[in-house]
Amino acid sequence: MTIAMNHRPVTADDGCQDQVLLDQWYAIDFATEFPAGEIHKVTLLERDLIVWRDSDGQAHVWEDLCVHRGARLSKGWLENDTVICPYHGWRYDSAGSCVLMPAAPDEKPMRKARAFPYPVAERYGFVWVCLGEPAGPVPDFPEWDDTAFMKVHSGPYHYDGNGFRAVENFVDASHFPFVHAGYNGLPDAPDKLEPYTVTELPDGSLRSSEVRVFQPIGDARGRPVVAFYTYTVFAPFVGYFSKRTVDADASGAAISETSNTFTTLFAVQPLDATHCVVRVCSALDTLPHPEPEAVRERADIIYHQDRDIVETQRPERIPVQLRYELHHRTDLMGQRYRSWLRGKGITYGVI
Ligand code: FES
Ligand SMILES: [Fe+2]
Fold first, then answer.
1. What is the pLDDT of residues 126-145, one digit of tens each?
2. In angstroms, what is the span from residue 38 Cα to ligand 1's centroid?
3. 209 CA from centroid of ligand 1 (Å)
4. Average pLDDT, whole number, for the chain?
5. What is the whole-number distance in angstroms between the Cα of residue 44 and the centre of ligand 1?
6. What is the pLDDT of residues 150-187, one digit of tens each?
7. CB 178 within 8 A of CB 190
8. How far is residue 306's CA from residue 264's CA, in Å, rounded to a whole number?
9. Is the CB of 88 under 6 A from ligand 1?
10. Does 87 sit in the ligand 1 pocket, CB within 6 Å?
11. In this structure, which residue's CA is closest to atom 4 in ligand 1?
């Protein structure tokens, strides 16, 4: 049984207290999942939130909590850009201020009669929220504004597993031949990984040098490719890869001079320490562009395979003490990711 099932923290003094994590941006869903006119419920780091849009289309994310007697605002309703609490009808404007207490309609509501709003950003087709003070901007997705790249969203993928382990799996190339047999590698002829390096960039993100692998069905085009992955971890729960691909023959030999690029932003919404939701946005410049549906179908196969293996990992919370597991040089990216998490002083969701 998870902590979340026993206990639901409702205030900022409860639940995840890791300031480093609270100060991050989290993609809480695709922007299209929050149509105007409705109050939507979302869970992030054990906290229950509401999302709603005002008539300008601006998304608002608040605690799912009325300060009066603690009723859930998600059970309330919207009227003229205000949220109405279902219990005593207190009405909150888009800035979160109570503007009407129906039992005392002539009184100006107290200054403390406020909702609990959080910083919100809408980028790359996701709504992002920060539960603290944003430590920086939403991570930069380099290809998003480049019109040569088609963009495809995939997911959500619900992992009954730890969000850090989901990110580590995303930046791990040596599982391809086994977890993604026939797609990203061959179990009977697994790639030998050459040594690569991992660098912490001036903006604090972690980046690998290129990792070369053979992929029998490297992307939605359905052809064999030699792929060169460059992995980046932008934030504890946001990964990214840029994959340069060269056409290959069935034996894995490169047969073209030109390369295409396939990139993916991997955004994890930690529900609690051992459950998360993964959503991805891919950007690719392969011509002709494959059908978005084909890209999504392949992503569904790959991420379900990843989910199935991440859900088996024990301990469920990722060990950031390196002595708890065995690290090989081919695991350098995951190893550095763990040390990087430990260096930030993160204690939630790790052991
Ligand atoms: S609990 Fe919300 S108005 Fe009373
Ligand atoms: Fe994988």
1. 999 999 999 999 999 999 99
2. 19
3. 54
4. 95
5. 23
6. 999 999 999 999 999 999 999 999 999 999 999 999 99
7. yes
8. 15
9. yes
10. yes
11. 88
Place of tokens 């969000």: 163
* Structure confidence by residue, pLDDT tens digits, 57-95: 999 999 999 999 999 999 999 999 999 999 999 999 999
The Å distance, Cα 268 to ligand 2 centre, comes to: 15
**Which three-class secondary structure string do you get for the chain?**
CCHHHHCCCCCCCCCCCCHHHHCCCEEEEEHHHCCCCCCEEEEECCEEEEEEECCCCCEEEEECCCCCCCCCHHHCEEECCEEECCCCCCEECCCCEEEECCCCCCCCCCCCCECCEECEEEECCEEEECCCCCCCCCCCCCCCCCCCCEEEEEEEEEECCCHHHHHHHHCCCCCHHHHCECCCECCCCCCCCCCCCEEECCCCCEEECCEEEEECCCCCCCCCEEEEEEEEEEECCEEEEEEEEEEECCCCCECCCCCEEEEEEEEEEEEECCEEEEEEEEEECCCCCCCHHHHHHHHHHHHHHHHHHHCCCCCCCECCCHHHCCCCHHHHHHHHHHHHHHHCCCCCCEC
User: How much is the pTM?
Assistant: 0.96
| pLDDT tens, position by position, 301-324 | 999 999 999 999 999 999 999 899
pLDDT of 24 higher than 60 = yes
- The bound ligand whose nearest atom lies closest to the alpha carbon of 67 is 1
| Ligand 1 atom closest to the CA of 90, numbered from 1 | 3
